[in-house]
C-alpha cells in the first residue's frame, strides 16, 4: 500500500476538521489531518472568553444566515446540540448554561480540544502540523496534495479551513480558493459577530466608553435584544454582535434605548415630571448627559409644558435611534465570516460537492453562519458529523 495514500485527508485542524476526523477514523478509515499551525484548535481555545460556548440547546435552522436558508436543516437534525452535550458528558467535562441554552465549559476551552483529540486517538487519526499545502490536483479521481514537506494522496478531500477572522492565529482563504479551483461559487464574504464603528457625527459618544445598557435593535427586518456596550471606537456588546450578523455596508440600525419603557405613555402619564426624571429611572447619568448635549434634549422642562412635536422627537431619538456605522471592526475583531462556499453546489445531507466527487466542505468555510451563542460550533459539529458518516459509508 502507498504510505502516502489516505482514505480521507482533512485540511484544517479546527472544530469541524477534528470532529470529522474522529468520526471517520472511528469508523475504520485511515484519516490524515493537515494543519498549517503548530497546534490544533486555536480558535476553540479563545472562544467563549476562554471557556468555549460549545453549543446552544435551542439551535434551529432560524439561528443561521445563508444563501439557502434550508441548507443547514439536514445536518442540524442529524446531529443535535444534545448529541454533542452527551459527548461532553461522556468525556466528564463539567459545563454550565450561562444564558438560555448557551452551554460553556465550566473550566477551560482546552477541554473541548482534549475531547476532540481523544476522539481522534480512538480513530487512529494521523496529523501533519506546520504543514502548508501548496497545491491540490485531481487526476483519475485521486486528489494529489502537495505540501511544503510531503505529498499525500486521497480519494476523499475534506476542506475544513474555517473563515477569515483572526489571520494571526491561522485563518486563511485557502478553502475559498480551493472551492473556486474546483468550480464552486463563493457567496459574498463579510465579517460578522463584530463591533461597529461610529461615524464622525457620533464620535463624541466615545466618552461613554464602558457603558453597557439593555437595548432592542431592529435591522433588516430582524430584531435582537441584549446588552449594548459603548466603546472608544463605536458600539459592541452582544446586542451589536448579534445585529452585525444582518448588517451590510450602509445599513441603518434602529436602536431602542428604552426597550422596557413605553416612553410615549410614560410622558403622557407624568406631565408634572421632567424628561430627566423619567430617564434617570432607566438610563445611566453619564449617558443622559451626553445624549442631552449631543441631541439637544430639553431635560428640565415639565413634560406638561413640552410640545407634542418635541415629545415625538424624544420618542424618535430614544426609541428609534438611527445608527449608521462607518463600518465594522473587520476580520481582526469578527468572530465569524458571513458567506462562504455556496450551498447550491453542496449536498446538504453529506456536505459533498455536487461538482467534484470526493470533495467535501464543512464548518465555517461554507455559506452557513450562526448567531452569537454557540450556534457556530454546533454547525461545525453537525456538518462534520454528516460528512464523517457519509465518508464511512462510501469508502467501505
Ligand atoms: C474570538 C472568537 C470567539 C468565538 N467564540 C465562539 C463561541 O463561544 N461559540 C461558537 O459557537 N463560536 C464561536 N466562535 C466561532 C467559532 O470559533 C468558529 O465558527 C469555528 O471554530 C469554526 O470551525 P471550523 O472548523 O470551520 O474552523 P476553525 O475552527 O477556524 O478551524 C480552521 C482550521 O484550519 C486551519 N487552516 C486554515 N487555513 C489552512 C491551510 N491553508 N492549511 C492548513 N490548515 C489551515 C486553521 O489554522 C484552523 O486550525 C468564535 C470565534 C472567535 C474568533
Total beta-strand segments: 23
User: What is the share of helical residues?
Assistant: 25-40%
Shape: elongated
CATH architecture of the largest domain: 3-Layer(bba) Sandwich
Please explain how this structure is put together.
There is one protein chain. By secondary structure, this protein is α+β, with helices and mostly antiparallel strands. The chain is 30% helix and 22% strand. The strands form six sheets. Strands 19-18-15-16-17-14-20 form a seven-stranded antiparallel beta sheet. The protein has a five-stranded parallel beta sheet with strand order 8-3-2-12-22, sandwiched between helices. A hairpin with a 4-residue loop joins strand 6 (95-97) and strand 7. It binds flavin-adenine dinucleotide. Residues 11-17, 34-37, 40, 42-43, 46-48, 52-53, 133, 160-162, 165-166, 170, 172, 174, 335-336, 363-365, 374-377, 380 line the site of flavin-adenine dinucleotide.
Give the helices and strands, then pairings.
Blueprint (H helix, E strand, L loop, with lengths): L4 E2 L1 E4 L3 H12 L4 E4 L7 H5 L6 E4 L7 E2 L6 H7 L2 H10 L4 E3 L4 E4 L4 H13 L3 E3 L4 E7 L2 E6 L3 E4 L2 E3 L14 H8 L8 E3 L3 E2 L14 E8 L2 E9 L3 E3 H8 L8 E4 L6 H7 L5 H6 L4 H10 L13 H12 L1 E3 L3 E2 L7 E3 L20 E3 L7 E2 L4 H21 L1
Helix pairs in contact: 1-5, 1-12, 3-12
The protein binds flavin-adenine dinucleotide.
